[in-house]
Specification:
Blueprint: H1 4-14, H2 16-49, H3 53-82, H4 107-110, E1 127-128, E2 137-144, E3 147-150, H5 154-168, H6 170-178, E4 190-191, E5 199-201, E6 208-210, H7 215-228, E7 237-243, H8 256-266, H9 269-282, H10 289-295, H11 298-305, E8 312-313, E9 333-335, E10 338-342, H12 351-360
């Protein structure tokens, strides 16, 4: 019989975005189940004080069922925890003159002579989501709740967002200290003890966040933290200042045009569509009335993109079709002050039409 490890391994290899979404959604669900169990506890106390044995027994059964449900969810998460965020716990930080350890460069590459790092600069105005690969990439700022924050590196990004969130709720961070969702195989991502060069104290608290992580591990941890604070990770945007990927490929030349073409060719159509639409969302693009009507209409969407579903739907209930198959991405996009769900039913032959539509949008 196939176990959950096999399923997750397959999804991680072939559908990484879906695998990550399931993981983060499961963690959010666990936090809500914990809230429900706590609420039932309070109600059980009231029922007991009123000598209402029938209600007390019923509430106890509800609580026990939720605990069983948690076990089922953890069967999935236990595998993901052991195969994702803490794989790089033992990575040693390396430093290159001019920037910090998020470059992930080797010592041989660090001391290359006459390297023109300006050739690896990228468009710092372009927003990126937390579902991308950030190995060898240097961050310059991030956007949270519509506000941009300048940062020095990935470590600074993690500490800064923790400091921001601590102002919202210190109690939430206190819960994360003991939460199994924030414990790796070897470390706890939040603790009460300072460990030199490994963790940093969060402002206004006595809690330390583990920072000795790779760029991708930090991005994963930020997503988990946002979920714990009931924030949507899809609303968090990253801005880069450099991409040193080409520096690691001896056969590659640091030509930005060539690198960009290669990346686009390797980018799956679904990820391509989602990334472009997140860019529009970050730019707060406003669709005209007629544009919205077309995107909400199946026939018009077919004419524009060659797809069989409306590009936009407004209701979360329409994410799945009548047979329970997912036809839209679960994470909504915000345009014109409203939330919309975008169809995931794009195939490679739709790429040209989508790009043609996207490039014609008036984004000035």
């Amino acid at each position: 019989m196939i176990n959950i490890d096999d399923v997750y391994a397959y999804l991680s290899e072939h559908e990484p975005d879906i695998a990550n979404s399931i993981c983060y959604a499961s963690e959010w669900l666990l936090s809500k189940i914990d809230d429900a169990i706590e609420a039932l506890k309070e109600r059980r106390i009231v029922a007991a004080s009123n000598d209402n044995d029938e209600e007390y027994e019923q509430l106890t059964n509800y609580r026990d069922r939720l605990k069983e449900y948690k076990k089922d969810i953890n069967k999935y998460l236990n595998y993901t925890r052991n195969n994702s965020i803490d794989e790089n716990d033992n990575n040693t930080s390396l430093f290159l003159p001019g920037f910090k350890s998020d470059s992930n460069l080797t010592q041989d590459e660090i001391y290359q002579s006459k390297v023109d790092y300006s050739k690896y600069a990228v468009d710092s105005s372009k927003p990126h989501t937390l579902n991308e690969n950030y190995t060898y990439k240097k961050i310059c700022c991030f956007m949270y709740n519509g506000i941009k924050y300048t940062v020095n590196d990935w470590t600074d990004t993690l500490v800064t967002i923790c400091n921001i969130l601590a102002k919202k709720s210190k109690n939430t961070f206190e819960k994360l200290v003991d939460s199994p969702n924030f414990k790796g195989r070897k470390i706890s991502y939040f603790g009460l003890k300072y460990i030199k060069d490994k963790n940093v104290k969060i402002d206004g608290t006595n809690i330390y966040v583990w920072v000795n992580l790779s760029a991708n591990a930090i991005v994963d941890l930020i997503q988990k933290i946002l979920i714990a604070f009931n924030d949507n990770p899809g609303d968090f945007y990253v801005y880069l200042k450099a991409d040193y990927t080409a520096l690691h490929n001896s056969n590659s030349k640091p030509d930005q045009t060539t690198t960009k073409v290669q990346q686009n060719n390797e980018e799956k159509i679904g990820k391509h569509v989602k990334k472009r639409m997140r860019e529009l969302e970050a730019q707060k693009y406003t669709f005209s009335h007629n544009e919205l009507l077309a995107l909400l209409n199946a026939q018009k969407s077919k004419e524009i993109f060659g797809i069989t579903y409306p590009f936009f739907v407004e209701s979360q209930n329409m994410v799945y079709d009548k047979n329970g198959r997912g036809r839209y991405w679960k994470e909504p996009f915000r345009f014109n002050g409203k939330l919309y769900y975008i169809t995931s039913q794009f195939y490679e032959h739709n790429r040209v039409k989508f790009d043609d539509w996207f490039n014609k949008l008036n984004r000035m």
